[in-house]
C-alpha cells in the first residue's frame, strides 16, 4: 500500500497505537524534564534544557540522577515518536505527515544519545530536533482537517519563530529576561503540545472510524 494513500478503516488498531504512543510522548517528555529539574541541585529554567543532561564544554558538568533521567527521557520520547511513525506509515498516512515526524523523533533520540558535553553532535541533533519539529507541525496541516490543521500551523510556526529569534538574537532583545533557557522552552514546549494533540486527534479519528 502506498504511504501517500488515505488510511483504511480496517487499520484502526494501528492508528490507535500511533495515537496512544504520541499522546504518551508528550507526557513522558514533560514529566521527565520536570523530574530532572527537581533532582538537579541548583538548576534554573533560565538555563538550557540540555544542561539537565550535561553542560557544554569547556566545563562540562552533570549531576545524577538528573542526567540519567533527562537522557533516558529523550531516548524514550524519540523512540516513541519513531514507533508512532512506523504505524502511521503502515496505515498509509501521507508522507508529508510521517516523514518530518520521523526526522523529529530521530533528532530527539539523538539528543539522548549525545548529551550536552558531546560536541558538536549534541548541538547538531538539538538543532535538527527544533527545526524538524516545527516543520512537521506546519506540514501536518496538509494531512489533517480543521481545526487541528490550524492549531498545527500555529504551534509549529510559533516554535520556528522562537527558534529564529534564538539563532539571530540569542538571549538579547525584547525576550532577554527569559534568558536562553526560557527562549528555548518557547521552541520546545509548543512541539510537545502539538505531539500530544496529534495523538489525541488520531485517537478521536480512530473512535469515529470504529463507530462507522
TrEMBL record:
Tell me yes or no: is DNA damage among this UniProt entry's keywords.
no
Q: Which Pfam families match?
A: DUF998 (PF06197)
* Cell membrane listed as a keyword: no
Q: Where on the tree of life does the source sit, at the highest rank?
A: Archaea
Spans through the membrane: 12-34, 69-89, 96-115, 121-141, 148-167, 187-204
**Which InterPro entries does the record match to this protein?**
DUF998
User: Keywords assigned by UniProt?
Assistant: Membrane, Transmembrane, Transmembrane helix
What is the designated name of this protein? DUF998 domain-containing protein
